[in-house]
Design a protein that fits this description.
By secondary structure, the protein is of the alpha+beta class. It has a single domain, classed as N-terminal domain of TfIIb. The chain is about 30% helix and about 20% strand. The protein has 4 helices and 5 strands. Strands 1, 2, 3, 4 and 5 form a 5-stranded antiparallel sheet that branches. The chain is globular. It starts with a strand and ends in a 9-residue tail after the last strand. Interacts with TRM9.
């Protein structure tokens, strides 16, 4: 499934595309599945997350808002970790597509799996 955690790490790799991040969703079908929170995992993932891109995606999808910035001590902020967990781990994009903000290449999503393959002339 395309989770926002995965989405935050995907970018366009079409030849000569230099600003292919973050991919924007088009006609997404969203499912939410509750999962047990793993606070240690979330805290360890924070340095790898592009916070502005995550907030942009959350806003685009109409999900509950995330704070403008990561708190100074996120490991001790229960409300922040709960909101981050919901956004990163419980939101699943079942179908639709992701579109490059620069070259407009479309990456379809079917059954929760993004097709990131490029044709030979795009590589």
């Amino acid at each position: 499934m395309v989770r926002l955690l995965t989405h935050n790490m995907l970018q366009c790799h079409v030849k000569n595309c230099t600003n292919g991040f973050p991919l924007r969703f088009h006609d997404p079908i969203i499912e939410q599945h509750e999962q047990e929170i793993n606070k240690e995992f979330l805290v360890n993932m924070l340095p790898r997350i592009d916070w502005n891109a995550l907030r942009t995606t959350v806003d685009q999808l109409g999900l509950p808002e995330l704070p403008a910035a990561v708190p100074e001590n996120p490991a001790e902020d229960e409300a922040f970790l709960a909101a981050l967990h919901r956004a990163l781990m419980e939101v699943n994009i079942q179908s639709g597509s992701m579109v490059c903000p620069e070259c407009e290449h479309v990456y379809p999503i079917r059954d929760g799996i993004p097709n990131m393959l490029l044709s030979e002339d795009e590589v």
